[in-house]
Fold this sequence. Notes:
- By secondary structure, this protein is α/β, with parallel strands linked by helices.
- It folds into 2 domains: 3-53 and 299-401, Aspartate Aminotransferase, domain 1 (Alpha-Beta Complex); 72-294, Aspartate Aminotransferase, domain 2, CATH 3.40.640.
- Helices cover 43% and strands 12% of the residues.
- The protein has helices spanning 15-18, 24-37, 56-67, 81-95, 109-121, 137-144, 164-170, 193-206, 229-232, 234-237, 264-277, 283-294, 298-319, 350-360, 385-401; strands spanning 43-44, 104-107, 127-132, 148-153, 175-181, 209-213, 240-245, 258-261, 334-335, 363-364, 366-367, 377-380.
- The strands form 3 sheets. A 7-stranded mixed sheet has the order 2-8-7-6-5-3-4, sandwiched between helices. The chain has a 3-stranded antiparallel sheet with strand order 9-12-11.
- The chain is globular.
- The termini are far apart.
- The relative contact order is 0.16.
- 4'-deoxy-4'-aminopyridoxal-5'-phosphate (PMP) binds at residues 48, 109-111, 135, 181, 185, 213, 215, 245, 247, 253, 258.
Amino acid sequence: MSIQTMNKTVPPFSNRVLNVDESLTVATFARMGELKRRGADLISLVAGEPDFDTPGNVKDAAIQAIAKGCTKYTAPASGLPELRQAIAQKLKRENNLDYEPSQIVVTCGAKQVIFDAVVALINPGDEAIISAPYWVSYADQVRLMGGRPVILKTSEETGFRMTPRALADAITPRTKFILLNSPCNPTGEVYTHDALGALADVIADAGIFVISDEIYEKIIYDPAEHHSIAAVHPGVGSRTLLVNGFSKAYAMTGWRVGYGAGPPELMRLIARVQSQETTNTCTISQYAAIEALNGTQESVETMRNAFQVRRDLIVARLNRMPGVTCRLPQGAFYAFPNVSDLYGDRVRNDVELANYLLEEAETGCVPGSGFGSGDHLRFSYAASLPMIREAMDRIEDALNRM
Ligand code: PMP
Ligand code: GLU
């Protein structure tokens, strides 16, 4: 039946989908790719993905899996038993957390397990607390399920961290979960052990769930340390979905492997959702992920060190520009400068400034409003030092002309 012949009184598409936008990061990334294909001399500091190649030992493990004929569906759909075992061992070894492999579900990236959890937890009208600035997909995933994202604004003054008081004030009888993301995309902020403990006390009192997105766990800079809220407070641990994946630490964005670990009942429901949705993530990628966890970790450290040098360069350069101030991120690979002093007649907001930089500096970035803060722009420094230097020269020049 074509759309034209459908019943005119029934809107043809789902309001839930019409009410959300395409992911701004994914859309901006696609736009940069299109401009480059058309020959633009563009430096894109847009993509939230390591510019490094996937480590050789991980690629070899996938090639071996293909050669051995490991090319069928994964049974069970929740992930290869060997991979779930390797993840359980990693969570014990590095995070001091005890999970049975049956409490782990392997998904098509961390993005999918977050969405599956939203599907498993949210009834129409339920609320999810998300602190801003936030990663673009959280709020829209909640909206897609008919839930209501409750956005808690944070600022540079609190280090972009949510305070226990603000959290307590935001909790209502409809609150299902709070979303935590440390290290944070886009701010790079990291919650300390004590800060997590203070939030955990409020969460335990309220008895709500936590989705703890720890995908940037390994991209963290001295003296910051990663702590999982699941390990900080046992009462909260049993109500936490710990989310992690392979995209960032192992430069495996295209392989699409992430995972969640959490309480048995929630994990059974997440597995149920996945079984109706994608069956399993790519089996070959799962063999590669086993090697990523169990093999040498040398490349993780090499990449982290490179990101740190790039961070220091980009933040120093941004802070030298008039009207721009940028905190030193403690983790992830994004600079998130406050550019609101530049707003005026020529550019009125973050979207116009990002467009101005695209046209006048041939440099791509993501407007902060997509992350819930129109005062900022996001620059990924998962790019080579010469590219970052050239981008900063271009931006400085364009801002001087503005
Ligand atoms: N969480 C955050 C904070 C991210 O930046 C990303 C990057 N896309 C993801 C989750 C999802 O990663 P993936 O689906 O590639 O595992
Ligand atoms: N997480 C990355 C980013 O923030 C990749 C794109 C996405 O999935 O949002 O740019």
